[in-house]
Amino acid sequence: MIDKLDRVILSILQENARTSNVEVARRVGLAPSAVLERIRKLERADVIRGYEPRLNAAAVGSPLVAFIFVHADEKIGGLETGRKIARFPEVQEVHQVAGEDCYLVKVRVADTDTLGRLLRDQFASLTTIRSTRTTIVLSSVKESGQVPLNGAGPAAGPSPPRASRAAGRPAAKRRGRRRAS
C-alpha cells in the first residue's frame, strides 16, 4: 500500500508539515500534481491523520510533564477507564499497557500544584481507578511525535532526476541542430 516514494513524502511532511507541495515535488522528483494526489491518497487511507503545530509547552503555560501509571478495576482488555482519562485536557497520551498497571498516561500541566489537583479531582473522580503512580519529568532529551519510516528520510529517498542534455527532447531538436542525412 505504501511504497518507498510515499515513505519519503511522509518523512518530509513529518519533518515540516508546512512544506509546500511544490517543494515536496522538487525533493522527490515528481510533478506537484502527482505529489498532491499521493498525499490525498495517504489522507484517504488514514495514513496521514491530520496536521498540527508543535507548541512550546513552557511558552503556553504547561512546562511540567508527568507520566502516570494507572491501575484500574475493569475487565482485561477493557478501555473504558482509558477513554475517560483521555477526555481530560491536560492528558496528551493514554496507552493501555501490559504488566501490573493498566495504563500509562502522559500529562502536561503548569506546576506540581496543578498536577496534584488533576490527580485528586479528576483522576480520583473515576471510580474504576484503584491506584496511580506518578513520575515527574525533570528534563527531556528528546520528544517527538514522528513515526519511524524504516530509514526513509529526505536523504534516503530517490534523488530528483538529473537533467540530461538530450532527455525529453525530440531527436531532431537535440543540441539545437539537425543532423545531415
Commentary on this structure:
- The chain has 181 residues and is α+β, with helices and mostly antiparallel strands.
- The chain has two domains: 1-54, Arc Repressor Mutant, subunit A (Orthogonal Bundle), CATH 1.10.10; 64-136, Lrp/AsnC effector binding domain/regulation of amino acid metabolism (RAM) domain (Alpha-Beta Plaits, 2-Layer Sandwich), CATH 3.30.70.
- The protein is 29% helix and 17% strand.
- The chain is built from five helices and four strands, in the order H-H-H-E-H-E-E-H-E.
- Strand 2 (91-96) and strand 3 form a beta hairpin.
- Helix 2 packs across helix 3.
- The chain is elongated and about 55 Å long.
- The termini are far apart.
Per CATH, the architecture of the largest domain is 2-Layer Sandwich
Instruction: Name the beta content range.
Output: 15-25%
CATH topology of the largest domain: Alpha-Beta Plaits
Assembly type of the chains comes to: single chain
Biggest sheet, spatial arrangement of strands: 2-3-1-4
> How many individual β-strands?
4
* First-residue to last-residue Cα separation: 50 Å
Major sheet description: 4 strands, antiparallel
Count of the domains: 2
Task: Please tell me what the overall shape is.
Answer: elongated
Element string (H = helix, E = strand): HHHEHEEHE
Runs with pLDDT <50, length 5+?
153-181
Look at the structure and give the CATH class of the largest domain.
Answer: Alpha Beta
Radius of gyration using CA atoms only: 25 Å
- The helix-and-strand class reads alpha+beta
Task: Give the overall pLDDT as a whole number.
Answer: 86
The residue fraction in helices comes out at: 25-40%
